């Protein structure tokens, strides 16, 4: 090349839903709510901790001085890292890094063999995890359904077992109470080798939720405090529903969500200053015609974007939502909903993005939907990547070589670069018409179903150490005994 050089530019596409001035206004509103309204706390230990720290506590109501909230924001780490169980990869949560995964605790699932809408069983969770393990753009695991064929008091721990035994990817999970959370920590310690190794290289996080508006329930706080005591990552995610459990305005709903999340953060940091904490929320609007919460509305996406802007303002990682739909079937609506939310979540800077593969406004899961979403996420990553501009990518030497009227197909650079420069689908159809017709004119849902079945029948998940399995199973047996 001639003796001149181009400036190398690498950038990630993105948008900010809220500017700094708007973020500051929202933050001041949150501080005002926490100071003058406060939150209701149904956990005596949390109330005592807050009282000793200087919060104004009257009965179950706790109010917070702005300085207390600001201190908690400063003390929490700006990045939280979750590692693969086998240490082969990690998710660094914070900034504009984004990772996608499914969701938990849904009461129905679509059977990929019968098409039946059914209550999931333990094997359905194992099957769903196998699909998650096989999909390259599903970065972490969640249980994908509330199973009904095990002891109810410990079904959360059973789901945890289904995940750690069938994939090495990081886990985002939930726990009924302190005892079950501790059992998962004990299992995680056996998998890692010690509690110290688990603390250094956590492969799972647990989440819990307040009750909107502005109520912290007992068991959720117990789980939070248990994780904080061990210095393990914790997600606190509210589910504000604009027009029902939060103000009808989008900004007011974000204020409610942040008041819940930041008051939870204060408790978390008082237990263990510097403990890793991920703020978050599944915040949406209620459709006033059906009184159904929406998972595909534009407000759902823009409020998640507003929450991501606030997480950037606070310099805290954020748990958001995408890859889901209000549709009751795997149809055009579900595809549009998933594509819109997945692209928007990456553009606005969500970190730990969940509920991929959800349908029916969070009441139904579908592994076929997750397979389709995996392709959408792949497309989205390619879009967010933007365009790399370097001396090599400008390709002036190649253009000179080929010249006017030439062809770049046979050039070595084409062969060397096309697989890394371009994205290729796994279920989206790019075949010529004749070949598609010869295949029987399959629709996208048919192709996705075939892929799910192929994964279930042929994908090999990593083997789990038999000695560690026995140790973890003993933890579960001991926990079951405590409920008898």
What is the structure about, briefly put?
With 484 residues, the protein is of the alpha/beta class. 47% of the residues lie in helices and 13% in strands. The protein has a domain at 78-254 and 274-385: TIM Barrel (Alpha-Beta Barrel), CATH 3.20.20.480.
How would the blueprint of this fold be written?
Layout: H1 20-36, E1 39-41, H2 44-53, E2 56-58, E3 61-63, H3 66-75, E4 80-83, E5 90-93, E6 99-100, E7 109-110, E8 117-118, H4 122-134, H5 155-166, E9 171-174, H6 178-192, H7 195-200, E10 204-208, E11 215-216, H8 218-229, E12 234-238, E13 241-242, H9 250-271, E14 277-281, E15 284-287, E16 292-293, H10 298-314, E17 318-321, H11 332-348, E18 352-354, E19 358-359, E20 364-365, H12 367-385, H13 391-394, H14 396-402, H15 412-421, H16 433-438, H17 444-458, H18 466-482
Helix pairs in contact: 1-9, 2-9, 3-9, 4-5, 5-18, 6-8, 6-18, 8-9, 9-10, 10-11, 11-12, 12-17
- CATH class category label of the domain at 78-254 and 274-385: Alpha Beta
Question: End-to-end span in angstroms?
Answer: 77 Å
Mean pLDDT equals: 95
Q: What is the name of the CATH architecture of the domain at 78-254 and 274-385?
A: Alpha-Beta Barrel
Q: Structural class, judged by helices and strands? A: alpha/beta
CATH topology of the domain at 78-254 and 274-385: TIM Barrel
- Poorly predicted regions are 1-10
Order of strands across the main sheet: 6-18-17-14-12-10-9
Largest sheet: 7 strands, parallel
Q: Assign a percent range to the helix content.
A: 40-55%
The assembly state of the depicted protein chains is single chain
Please report the total strand number as a whole number. Answer: 20
Q: If you compute it from the alpha carbons, what radius of gyration comes out, rounded to the nearest whole angstrom? A: 24 Å
Shape, principal axes of CA atoms: globular
**Superfamily (CATH H level) name of the domain at 78-254 and 274-385:** Trimethylamine methyltransferase-like
Strand content: 5-15%
Query: What is the count of helical runs?
Result: 18
